[in-house]
Structures are given as structure tokens and as C-alpha cells.
Amino acid sequence: MNEDMLAARHYLYRTFQCLLGNDPRSDGWAELDAELVEEACAIAGTDGAKLARLLGETYGSKARREQLASEYAATLVGPGALPSPPWESAQLSSDGGLFTPVTLTVRNAYRAQGLLPQQYPSVADDHIALECGFLAELAGRTLSACKAHDAERCTEALEASRSFIKAHPLRWAPCFAEKLSSEKAPFYRTVAESLVDFLKVDASWLDERALSRAAA
How many CA atoms lie within 13 A of 55 on its CB side? Predict the structure, then answer.
């Protein structure tokens, strides 16, 4: 299996976790690299040019990071109603409520892999950044298993990723992205759209790997 592809998947899910779960002024952002983002997107088979350009514009400007912090708060944190709630339960429920049975389904998927959010139970497990973090963890396990030539562990991580993507983020991330205003939240609209594009490509790639294993 192509280790470059596995490394790109891991890096991109970690990147989306950081972008959607951390204030732009946080230390986590200092580890992001626009060139690596674009390169990883190219390896994965999706276009990361626009996202990389916006990231590059942000790094060198303190004023831009402060501005983006305001956009982050208004888009993903609050106070006040958020234009597009970053939780699966809120996107899929008729009243926008959190901690619904959907949340428990997501939590059970984490638990099946021996994982829970660091701030559990004070956070809703189905936040978009947490779901990306879970997929990043699975992608990291896949990469490690591949390097160790552990085919069984690699397959388990790939199947868990494939199942989770289809059952969760692909069901609601497109709606999350679509509801974000390109005028009021141009950066996070781009991040969300880039994530959706990557999820679709990754799901297709995982399907191809599953078909290859079945035919072997």
C-alpha cells in the first residue's frame, strides 16, 4: 500500500481537526504548513490550492489571525446562535438539539476503537473537529500498521474509517458547509468545502481498497 497516501490522509485529517477545533491564535495553528496541505491534497486526489492560499495569507499577518479568530468564534463557538452548527446531532435533528441518539452512536464508534474525546463527557462527541480527530487517529493507525507490515491491523483501521465516514461526516458535513456564508465566513466555508471534497475522495479510495481485498 502507498505509504505517501496513508501519510497524506493522516496529515489532512489532523489539519481539518485543528482548523475546525482551534482558535487561529492557538499553538496548534503554528504547526500547520500551507505547502504541505496542498501537497497532501494532491496526493489524496483533491484540490487544495484555495485552502493552501488562505492558510498562507494567514501565517504572516497578526492582524489577519485576529480577524480570523473573530470569524472562528462567530462561526464555530458563539455566543449566540451559530449559522451552521458544527455538531452532527444539531444538523440532523429537527430542532437543532445536541446530545441526541446520534451523539451516542458516534460515541460508541469511538469506544469501539478504545477512544473518547479528551473533555468527555462535557463536550458533544459529534463535533466536526472531533470526528476529524477520530479519523486522523484511524489514519495514523493505518500508517503505523502498514509500516509494521501488519496487514490485519491495517485492514481493521481502514474498515473502521470507511464505515465511520459513510455513517457520519458524509451524512452531514455537506449541509454544514452549505449553510456557511461565503461572505461572513469565507475562510471556514472554504475549510468546510475542502473537508467535504476530501471526505468524498477518501470514501471512494477506501471503497476501492475494500474491493481489492475482497477480490484477492
Answer: 21
